Amino acid sequence: MTRSFPMNAGDGLYSYSKNSHLQILTSGISQDHMIRFPRPKRCMRQVLGGGLLERNNRWCKEMVRDAIIRKLDIKTILSSSNTIHITELGCSVGPNTFNAMQHIVEALKDKYLYQDQVIDSTKSIPEFQIFFNDQVTNDFNSLFCSLPVDRSYYASGVPGSFHDRLFPSRSIHFAHCSTLARDTLQEASNEL
Questions:
Q1: What superkingdom heads the lineage (predicted)?
Q2: Over 88-155, what HEC string results?
Q3: Contact assessment for residue 142 and residue 16, using Cβ atoms and an 8 Å cutoff
Q4: How far is residue 17's CA from residue 105's CA, in Å, rounded to a whole number?
Q5: What structural domains and CATH numbers belong to the chain?
Q6: Hey, how many other C-beta atoms are within 10 angstroms of the C-beta on 36?
Q7: Strand, helix or coil at 87?
Q8: Backbone CA torsion sign across 150, 151, 152, 156
Q9: Structural element, H or E, at residue 188
Q10: How far apart are CA 122 and CA 144, in angstroms?
Q11: CA distance 124 to 68
């Protein structure tokens, strides 16, 4: 049986949205294909005391962008639709998930524009549909109330465990998993 550890909902003093600064700091550091740090406390002291936040965020954004540019085939994705489907697994509530999604959408647009020069420059930029997923106890109301006004994507909520089936077969083009949720993925079955 899967154990559930949901974040505190809302925007109160002890909510995740008010207390996710550490996740902002570490999100880029641990994004490198599930790197595990042998001394996480020492690493965090270096991050917090070493002024690595800006470099870390830049590095994370560049790493995601580089992987998308090198490995994603936009032509295949858009062969049947002009919409790219993205999911954020374990989104919780707060700015971290929106920052990650914005970086991914920007990188996908760059990839499309780069690859489109080779394919057909008369096509319009694709639309983006993001599925924010978290446990059913997540505060999706707060999540949607805090969506960026100037976002360039459509947003939907998908409550449920990613240990279960959440989406139809072959319906997601790109999946992102936050630092905390990724730890839970290690317990997932081989079917994922």
A1: Eukaryota
A2: EECCCCCHHHHHHHHHHHHHHHHHHHHHHHHHCCCCCCCEEEEEEEECCCCCHHHHHHCCCCCCCCEE
A3: no
A4: 22
A5: 16-185 (3.40.50.150)
A6: 8
A7: strand
A8: negative
A9: none
A10: 34
A11: 19
The token duo for 22 is 């550490």
Which is nearest to 180 in space by CA: 49, 43, 38, 24?
24
Print pLDDT tens along the chain (192 aa). Answer: 455 555 555 566 656 555 555 455 545 443 333 334 344 444 444 444 455 555 556 666 777 788 888 888 888 888 778 899 999 988 877 777 888 899 899 999 988 887 765 555 556 789 999 999 988 888 888 889 889 899 999 999 999 987 788 999 889 998 888 655 555 555 554 444
177 neighbors 90 (Cβ within 8 angstroms)? yes
From residue 65, give the alpha-carbon distance in Å to each of 36, 43, 132.
Answer: 22, 24, 20
Assigned token pair, 136: 């059913």
Cα–Cα distance for residue pair 84/175, rounded to 1 Å: 11
100/130 Cα distance (integer angstroms): 11
The Cα 74–Cα 126 span in angstroms is: 10
Structural element, H or E, at residue 85:
strand 83-89
